[in-house]
Amino acid sequence: MFTYVPSLVLFLHTSLPFLALSAAPTAAFPFQSYTALGDSYAAGVGSGNLITSCAPNTNCNTTCLRNTGSFGYMLNQIWQPSSFQFNACSGANTSTCPAYQIDSAAADFGAPDLVSLVLGGDNGQAFVSIVYNCVYIRDIPILRTESCQDAMTNAMMVYNGPLQADLEAAIQDAQTKNLPLNGTQKRTVLVFGYARFYNTSNPASYCEIDTDYPSPGPDGLRAQINTGVLQLNGIIAAAATAQGAIYVDVDAGFEGHRFCDAGEDPWFINMPLTGGLATIVDDIENGVGLPPGGLPDSFGIENVADESFHPTLQGQMVYLEAMEAALGLRDVTSGGVKREAVPGAMGLGVGALQMAAMGVAL
Fold first, then answer.
1. Among residues 158, 152, 143, which one has the least CA distance to residue 290?
2. DSSP letter assigned to residue 105
3. How far is CA 243 from CA 164, 191, 240, in A?
4. How many whole angstroms separate alpha carbon 238 and alpha carbon 101?
5. pTM to 2 decimals?
6. How far is Cα 274 from Cα 291, in angstroms, rounded to an integer?
7. Cα distance between residue 125 and residue 241, in whole Å
8. Closest-CA residue to 22 (of 357, 360, 353)
9. pLDDT tens column, 163-218
10. How far apart are CA 145 and CA 140, in angstroms?
């Protein structure tokens, strides 16, 4: 079990003065049991410490890349419902999520009165193909698995195909699994969207150093990728509404912290390609050419790092605060969700969230 670590608290308080520590909420959490479902965004890939051992009430599977920085894990640490099941898994789609996170006996879905779901972003590996072919190697045809335009077209075909119906089926499963036969239990299901990745107008000089980014402008690739995210969000919102679930939009919370924003503080992770492919890309772009051994035996979307284009801890905090706002646990101000106290509850400072993300019981 994770325990309170005084030395860690002292370090956060003295070494990171911008992290304001404060106590846990005092208001009663209006739910008894919480289950977190979904894909790598819900698992918190790259946002905290990888969970490699099983804590009580935590479904353990290290291949799912569950992290302590995920918004679901932090919500459990902060509000401490009576039970918590962390079933989200990297790579989940609308088929595997119901099968392995809800319906499988091994998943231990429980009988929650609160469920969160992030799902649909990479059905058919549609988005990771865009990241690979349109971002990392867009100017190196020899390394492409398909053209950038084909990757984007194929993603739209996935999103505009059976995705909404498949999402509705997954939501319905999450709403009804293990409900008492008398139907007296009420279950709240929150379904989350995704955030746009790019500032579309700033030149490349505003982007991170040593990183390739799609072209700016209203017709550039950045705008096209952002448009795809918004179209996906519309499908997710329609599915949630059709099933009577609550759709939670997180996009506004990332404003000012997208790739290529002026502050150069993106709340998304950008990692080099894996398997030595990043070096090959650099050599080709710098005129060195292919390595003596030629291209690796296989290359493609598997070389996109698991963490790439996933929210940082700060990005996961946007999801956390949006969830709290949707549940009526915080005020929403004109500047977006703020970590301010709601009546009867004391808000958590960023430092306390940092502790929660590092696995420290609050």
1. 143
2. G
3. 11, 11, 5
4. 22
5. 0.84
6. 16
7. 25
8. 353
9. 999 999 999 999 999 987 555 567 999 999 999 999 998 887 787 654 556 666 66
10. 11
